[in-house]
Fold:
Amino acid sequence: MAYDVTLIPGDGIGPEITAATVAVLEATGVAFTWDEQLGGMAAVEKGGDPLPRATLESIRRTRLALKGPLTTPVGSGFRSVNVGLRKEFELYANVRPAYTIVPGGRYDGIDIVLIRENLEGLYVGVEHFVPVGNDPRAVAESVAIVTRVGCERIVRYAFDYAVRNGRKKVTVVHKANILKMVSGLFLEVGQKIAGEFAGRVEFGDMIVDNAAMQLVLRPEQFDVIVTTNMFGDILSDEVSGLVGGLGLAPGANIGTAAAIFEAVHGSAPDIAGKGVANPSAQMLAAAMMLDHIGEGDAGRRLRTAIRSTIVEDGIRTRDLGGTASTREFGDAVAKRVR
Structure:
C-alpha cells in the first residue's frame, strides 16, 4: 500500500530540505505516492497566486500534506499561505513537540508537547479603527472570538493525544484572571473535560505569564500544554528555544478535513541553494506524519536515526556546529533508518 501525499517543497531552502526528507522517508520502507504542488513565492512566480487552486484540490484529495517553508509576499495584498490553509481545511489543532536532541545545552531532558488552538482568539482578524475627532485612526480595536465548541475540540484533542501517547499530564494555560470571558471559557471547558479523564491523565492549569516563567525555571514540570491561539503562538517558540531553536522544531496542523506537517522555521532565502540548511525539523515533521498514518514504528526509527546521526555519528549541519551539507546529513540519516 502506498500513501498518497501532497508534497509542497516551498521556497527558499524548502526544496532542499524537502528533497532530503523525501529520500529519508523512502528509506524507511513505507511507500508513498507524491503529488508535488506549488505554494508561496514559488507559486507566485509561476502563476501569481501563493496558494493555487491545484494545491488546494490536491490536499482535498489526499487529506495529507508535507510542506516546506513558504514565504508570503510582503506588502502585496496576499493573505498568509499558512493562515489560508488552516482556514480552508479547518486545521484546528497545531501540535508542536519539543524534545532534547543535542545534549549539553542549557536544558537537558526536555520533552514537552504544546497543542495550540489554531482558528480562534485574536487571530480571527476582526479588527478596525475608531475615529475620534479629525483622526480616523485614533483608536484600534481587535476582537478575540472564542467559542465553546472550539475550546472543547482543542482541549479534548489534547487529552486524547495524552492518552494515545502515554502522556501523564495536561496543563491548560490561560489568562482567566483578567480575560474573564474569553480565557474563562477556555479554563471552564478545560476543567470539565479533565473530569472525563480523571484517573488516566493528570490535570493542571496555569496563568500564561507564570507558564512562560515556569518554562524557563522548571520545564520538567510540563508534559502536554494546551492553550489558545495567540498564547500558543508565543509559547511554542519559547518551548522550541529550550531545545536549541526552530531548526529542530517540527509541527503538525490537524483538522477535520486534512493534516499538514511542516518545519516551523522560515524559508531562509539568504542560504537558499547553498546546500547548508538543516533538514532535521522537516524530517521530524515527517516522523509526525508517519505516526499520524499509523506507521508508528517507522516514525520511531526516523526520530532515532536523526538523533543518532547528530549525537553518535557527529554528523551535523553548520547551524549545529558541524560541516555537513544538507545532502550529506540526509544521506547519513537515510543510512541509519534503513
Summary: The chain has two domains: 1-89+257-338, 100-226. The mean pLDDT is 95.
